[in-house]
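Might I ask for a little of your time on a matter of protein folding? Here, with my thanks, is the record as I have it:
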Amino acid sequence: MNREYYKDVVIEKNVKKYLKELDDRKLVIYSPTSINKIDIENNKCEAVNWHFITKNRANIDNYIMGVSNKIDEVITLGGGSVIDIGKYIANKLKIKLICIPTMLSTNSYATNKVALIENDKKVTLNSKMPDEIIIDNQLLKLSMQENIYGLADVLSIYTALNDWKIANEDIDEKINFEIYNEAEKLLNNVVSFINSKSLKEIGENNLSLFNFIGEAGYITNVYGTGRPESGSEHILAKEIEKRIDIPHGISVSIGIILMSLMQKQYNESIMNAIAKLKMLDNGKKYGLDMKIIIESLKKIKKREDRYTIVNRYNNMDDVDEIINEVEKIIRKNKVDLN
């Protein structure tokens, strides 16, 4: 698998200058926080706050009807939500999509899927890849913590691959070993990268983070589903995110720790990577505590389309020992979630 898969669509340039040159046929979808970081001084382009469109599929479809004859290109300026909306609009209108990530908190810039809301439920839909990705290092440096959170979706390969082996053992789900080995190789490279650098060096190495996080997304594109990097840890993360508004990287990190214990595959080097990246340190600020974790675990639902360790548990009330272990690990790493 070619690690240089997006070399033809990545351009390093000054985003502020680029945005000034856009004409009135260009639609810029932005997040408010991104506009605070890079003021759009050009009034020619159509610029819209993603909160106005929302991630509701029906709202986006209504918006598309109003702009379908007015735009010939979509530019996204922001993180995962902005990128998903832009990918969906560009795909529906069959027009060019340019992605300007202002943070690397998810791998949405490297996948052909979008996560939207339909009938009050999150749905995953097929979409398109960006035709061009613009990287501005100075802009990305303003979101250092969010960029680091994106590595959680690479570390989650650990529990996702364990879930794949469990599915193979329990229901004879076939393992694609080419994909499996590529995902495992990426995981090992990322753990080595984390171990070999200081947190400051990791946070300042935007191009490496972009490549690592993007390749995780690309692997799922090649396989056709998120199986190689999304398993039981993401199922738990989804439950946590139903209850509190929290960065995805934090909820996934909790999922990795807890599900690796349930899989009986707890790995000290993965935990050390999570600790070094300080993935959980701001959890309490977002409302995360052991009560939320326990409640989320006990309400977890099996995914019909993806067999994981969760399927082996008939009753999530019987996980007290696992919860005790999680509390010990969190205390050991001096994270306050009480």
Q: What stands out?
A: The CA atoms of residues 236 and 300 lie 6 Å apart. The longest strand covers residues 73-78.
